[in-house]
Amino acid sequence: MEILRILWQYWTTKRLGKKWKTRAQLERWQERQVQKLLRCVLPRSPFYRERFGTLRPDEWRKLEPIDKQLMMESFSELNTLGIDKEQAFHVAFLAEESRDFTPAIGNVTVGLSSGTSGNRGIFLVGPAERARWAGVILAKALPGRLRDEHRIAFFLRANSNLYTSVDRRRIRFSFFDLLIPLAEHLDRLNVFSPTILVAPPSMLRLLAEAKEKGSLQISPGKVISVAEVLDPLDQVYISQAFQQEVHQIYQCTEGFLAVTCPHGTLHVNEDIVVMEKEYLDEKRERFYPIITDFSRTTQPIIRYRLNDILSEKKTPCPCGSVYTALETIEGRADDVFLFHQVDGNGWVPVFPDFIRRAVMAASDEIREYRVRQIAPWLLEVSVWTDPDSSMDAWQKQITSHLHAIVRQHGGQLPEIRFTPYERVSGGRKLRRVERVFTPSEQE
Rounded to an integer, what distance in angstroms lies between the CA atom of residue 270 and that of residue 14? Predict the structure, then answer.
């Protein structure tokens, strides 16, 4: 039965992608889907029933957005099956510790988020939702035809029943654990010879280096970046090593949110989610996404504010899709750098993309980097460059570029401290731009 659901969703997704000619048509259809979701959810979720109060279902956009902390605090009342939060966490942590990711609660898949923000979360996916997700991701991410042979290698911190739900004769999945050193994966990866390679950018970078050295002999037809922000520096290097454009899947605990089209543009999956925009700047270029996923009923996601900073693409994509196109996923709100204003009154925010561009513009010899804001007055910069490059020259350039950006934003100039570059381990997410202090009124 599940394979039939997957196939039905695959063809439905393919058909829907060509259905709408205008945004207005898409948005009217989305509204009908949200109303359908609410008819299912409200009688079964005490949390959302109380949250709506006297609001009518068609007034759902008036709901105050929720966040990860509130969702986890209210988990037992929010999900529609009455699954207890402690039970779900127990199952998820057991799978994490044993590295056996098959356990579930009944027929419900339980997953654990990576917790980059320090607040780990759990998610529930029922069997119908699992089949729907599999059909959607195959339709959007799989190159060629469904009946072609596909071998998908995915490097993740944790496996899940969700990922292996489509493991069939012509579509084979192989999980590679990020907690295991890369050298132990190479032989199996060469034998498996994936047609599709899925991994975080930090791992794709290591695989690209192994490819250049000759210890990795695979030639995938598609390379997909997941789980971390894809830095332009890494994107170019990975693309050159594999001679493939690097595609992206934007997915988190809260849903399958976006995927690149054949032209490399990241489009929001507006056939399964509504994405509202909470703008962060006067130019209305950057925003927090507020999502409502009308494909999920077990753990409903209704007006959920993500902590990610997104920017919308200004020019139309050649593919002609009416789905929202994203220019970049800049990073998390927690990684916006904060400096004291020149006059000392208040904070000056500098978005991660400005920091990223400043470092990359400093020198063509930079291979990898990390910038961490330790305090309002201190930045720690780690850089890996060509061995023959002049350290004094690129350090001066980086300092000059970073100071220029802070000065343009009206902030007090920080000290720039350079430290040796160290790669993060497979169990941690790579954040090339990271703020590690929490502002307080006393600072």
Answer: 13
